Amino acid sequence: MKITVFGSGYVGLVTGACLADVGNQVMCMDVDQRKIDQLKQGIIPIYEPGLEEMVKDNQAAGRLHFTTDAKEAIDFGLFQFVAVGTPPDEDGSADLKYVLAVAKSIAEHMTEYKVIIDKSTVPVGTADKVRNTVLEVLGKRGEQLEFDVVSNPEFLKEGSALDDFMKPDRIIVGTDNPRTAELLKELYAPFNRSRDRLIAMDIRSAELTKYAANAMLATKISFMNELANLAERLGADIENVRHGIGSDSRIGYSFIYPGCGYGGSCFPKDVKALERTARDYGYNAELLSAVENVNDRQKLRLFEKITAHYSGSLQGKVFALWGLAFKPNTDDMREAPSRVVIDALIAAGAKVQAYDPEALHEAKRIYGDQPAGLEYVDNQDDTLKAADALIIVTEWKQFRSPNFEQLSLLLKDKVIFDGRNMYDPKHVRQNGLEYYAIGRP
Ligand code: UDX
């Protein structure tokens, strides 16, 4: 099949590469000339395990193509995936200018039937806006070409995006045209072999499904963080509570890990956007506001523990900090809890020696090459040099079993602040270290 993908960012690239990998012809289009030039040379702008190889292999096999030429891209595919960004507006709603610009461009250039597929996470009602935009432009052109608009939200997790695409839990297809649903079924058949995971529904429900999934997961996390804060006051251990409730299959073990808050490009943005949509439709979504507020507060919990430990005076203290990315296996620092912790520490006069296996270059992009109070260290152990204490913000695998004896010798104040509950408190304390975690006595 012939497929065009608009937007060569995270979602667009993964979608394009995976669709090419199963034998389709795919054209990826982006307006950023530099990005396209680099992609043609096999240089990938983001870190995602396996993606670079997949892009290179499929390019070499002649199945994956890149262009900045809209006309060429639109002529190419029957399927026109829209995977451009929807950055949050100041008021939290998703900005649709890129999505609608693509719709307009498709309408300007199309000469035959096209299936326009919204892959970006867009507010409920966007497919209607896309359809109206296309109709308007076709009207101006005096053309009566047929097209369909489909909502087909992505559920990729950073760090396991290729697997999520290749072996999805579900494929949501929102369309009001049964013939289009059949086309999409055919397109997704290679990813839908073991049992039928494709769920077809009306367009608005498909659009809402994406937000509902992310809001539910964010709610689970904020719920656990709230209980963790309560457990601290009650002298209970949230890790025991987590095991206790996770064993109930109705609750389940996933997404109930307490910590220093959720980050990333999806949860914070989508919870806000859904809240905003609710308000636009005259409904006050109180639970969503609470989920967001709990998370904002949670990102500061580590800093609060640190200040309490030092009785409010952090001037001149040196902190080793492990983990900058918003979660392991990514270099993404969007809405990362590390940023809140680092900003607060620097504002309080402390110095931070930070290490992350993948995100250092991203930190440099955000904070500049030589920011005051922040030093980038390209090796985990070197962060400990002359450090007073250690802070853990992201649960990278390589942080799982450090040499506590050595830590106890190196850290001047012999204290660890762990935002991800990585260690057994008893074990850490046996090594003469003080240990602060989230929701643990
Ligand atoms: C998420 C959704 O999982 C995915 O389906 C959607 O398409 C995009 O958003 P992603 O943002 O890549 O994916 O990361 P995810 O693994 O879901 O983690 C999100 C955040 O929640 C991270 O900051 C993580 O550290 C945090 N988290 C996750 C917790 O604090 N506790 C948990 O139990 C699980």
Automatic annotation (TrEMBL):
Q: Which InterPro entries match?
A: 6-PGluconate_DH-like_C_sf, NAD(P)-bd_dom_sf, UDP-Glc/GDP-Man, UDP-Glc/GDP-Man_DH_C, UDP-Glc/GDP-Man_DH_C_sf, UDP-Glc/GDP-Man_DH_dimer, UDP-Glc/GDP-Man_DH_N, UDPglc_DH_bac
Range of residues in the leader sequence: none
Family, according to the entry, reads as follows: Belongs to the UDP-glucose/GDP-mannose dehydrogenase family.
Q: Outline the extent of the UDP-glucose/GDP-mannose dehydrogenase C-terminal domain.
A: 320-425
Instruction: State what protein this is by name.
Output: UDP-glucose 6-dehydrogenase
Q: Which organism is it from?
A: Methylomonas paludis
Which Gene Ontology BP annotations are present? polysaccharide biosynthetic process
Task: Report the catalytic activity.
Answer: UDP-alpha-D-glucose + 2 NAD(+) + H2O = UDP-alpha-D-glucuronate + 2 NADH + 3 H(+)
Q: In which pathway does it act?
A: Nucleotide-sugar biosynthesis; UDP-alpha-D-glucuronate biosynthesis; UDP-alpha-D-glucuronate from UDP-alpha-D-glucose: step 1/1
Tell me which NCBIfam families the record gives: NDP-sugDHase
Q: Which residues bind NAD(+)?
A: 30, 35, 86, 121, 158, 269, 334
Name the enzyme group at the top EC level: oxidoreductase
Q: What is its EC number?
A: 1.1.1.22
The UniProt record gives the binding positions of substrate as: 155-158, 210, 255-259, 263, 327
Active-site residues are 266 (nucleophile)
Under the GO molecular function aspect, what terms does this record hold? NAD binding; UDP-glucose 6-dehydrogenase activity
Keywords, ordered alphabetically: NAD, Oxidoreductase
